[in-house]
Design brief:
The protein is 35% helix and 9% strand. Helix 3 crosses helix 12 and helix 5 packs across helix 8. It has three domains: 163 residues, no CATH class; 73 residues, no CATH class; 110 residues, no CATH class. The chain starts with 16 loop residues before the first helix and ends in a 26-residue tail after the last strand. It has 412 residues and is an alpha+beta fold.
């Protein structure tokens, strides 16, 4: 690790950036983008139903904003903070997958073409940008066929210069539109921040080349040691996870055992080393196969013709004192009016108490198997069928018989 240049407690009395300036609009847009990813978010695989999740992007902004000090140049403070958050234009270019030279030539004015670009075919290019490469044409003298003209960077142009020009050629003029088409920083690892460390170190007096190095050096300068983050109501673990990812020492607790389990999973499953995650995946597959074998042996998921149920509906039952049958207490036999699906009571095959479950249909059935669409029935006396339901007033519970059987979304 690079030796830090800051002295302990040298920032002890310096105000934090979060106290004086905070790019709320950009952070809000980024947080909304992360929340909109739904199952694509980093920690939702551990428990997507947890409603109190704080965006990891917002957590990162708060932690860095509390550590980073202000200077006598607020504008430059904001620029450095946006570099750290991947919100600057060069980072956006990386998040867009880099901008092609064709688009740079079309969007950035005043560039000497011969200094920056060359074509993939021998053709005379305009002397200066902007121009539309798509309007240029070239006919191959050997084949007589037209070839598409494409630009590429001159070999002498450095990657840093290319990225600077790409930042000027973003596809949209406003920040929100640009990030809507861009990837999130956490999807790209360290790539959006590869260009920032020289400027960050020059401004802060650090010597870091990664976030853990930077956070430790800023913590020493402010507190005399690596930052410690405590979250005593950690919930799903979003805050401690991001703090640990940045390099803080983290302490987390919660009274809810589900919250503790999710937080543990964030650190030990999502945050595990690749080797450990591969081992966990093998164990998950082994356990899933073992459980599936036990379920298959019970015969409760298949109808005997190879159709496997994906979802079960459950209801309260009472035991008939005369017949010994379990009778479901259903407020209505209609499961779905829109998909014309009902539950139909049936006489059980054995006159013994049995557990009754009903199975739903799904609108997107396996079309290639509709000829074999089954009538799923439970071990007791409930069967799911698709029927024509009347639409007139006062007839909601009347079921009309139909030859059409239900089509269920299942794996044959």
């Amino acid at each position: 690790m690079t030796e830090p240049t800051l002295q302990p407690f040298s920032w002890k009395d310096r105000p934090a950036v979060i106290e004086h300036l905070f790019p709320v609009q950009k952070i809000s847009a980024e947080s909304f983008k992360e929340q909109s990813a739904v199952h694509g978010k980093t920690l939702t695989a551990l428990g997507s139903y947890w409603k109190g999740r704080k965006p990891l992007f917002l957590n990162k902004a708060c932690i860095l904003g509390c550590l980073m000090p202000t200077s006598d140049n607020p504008l430059r403070d904001l620029e450095i903070f946006e570099l750290l958050m991947g919100m600057d234009e060069r980072s956006l270019a990386v998040r867009h997958g880099r901008i092609h030279p064709d688009d740079v030539a079309r969007r950035v004015p005043g560039l000497t073409v011969s200094q920056w670009f060359e074509a993939n075919v021998p053709i005379d290019l305009p002397e200066e940008t902007p121009f539309a490469v798509g309007e240029l044409s070239y006919e191959d003298p050997k084949t007589g066929k037209a070839k598409r003209v494409r630009l590429k960077w001159q070999d002498a142009v450095s990657d840093a210069d290319r990225l600077t020009l790409e930042a000027r050629a973003l596809p949209f003029p406003d920040y929100k539109s640009n990030i809507n088409k861009a990837k999130r920083c956490e999807e790209l690892g360290d790539a959006p921040h590869a260009h920032i460390w020289k400027e960050v170190n020059a401004h802060l007096g650090t010597s870091a080349h990664s976030f853990p190095e930077l956070v430790e050096q800023m913590g020493v300068a402010r507190f005399g040691h690596r930052p410690k983050v405590a979250d005593v109501f950690c919930g799903s673990g979003q805050i401690p996870f991001e703090a640990a990812r940045l390099g803080c020492d983290v302490y987390a607790s919660d009274l809810n055992p589900i919250a503790c389990m999710l937080t543990w999973g964030a650190f030990n499953i999502v945050g595990a080393a690749p080797e450990k995650r591969a081992e966990l995946e093998r164990e998950q597959q082994r356990l899933a196969a073992k459980v599936q074998a036990e379920i298959d042996a019970l015969g409760v998921e298949e109808d005997g013709d190879g159709w496997r149920a994906k979802v079960f509906l459950y209801c309260v039952e009472v035991l008939c004192p005369q017949s010994g049958w379990r009778v479901p207490l259903l407020p209505t036999l209609i499961i779905s009016k829109g998909y014309r699906v009902v539950a139909e009571l049936m006489v059980p095959t054995k006159l013994i108490p049995q557990t009754i479950s009903s199975l739903p249909t799904h609108p997107t059935a396996t079309r290639s198997n509709t000829k074999k669409s089954p009538n799923f029935s439970s071990p007791g006396c409930v069967k799911i069928r698709r029927k024509n339901l009347p639409t007139g007033p006062g007839t909601a519970d009347v079921l009309w018989r139909s030859r059409e059987r239900m089509t269920i979304s299942a794996d044959p």
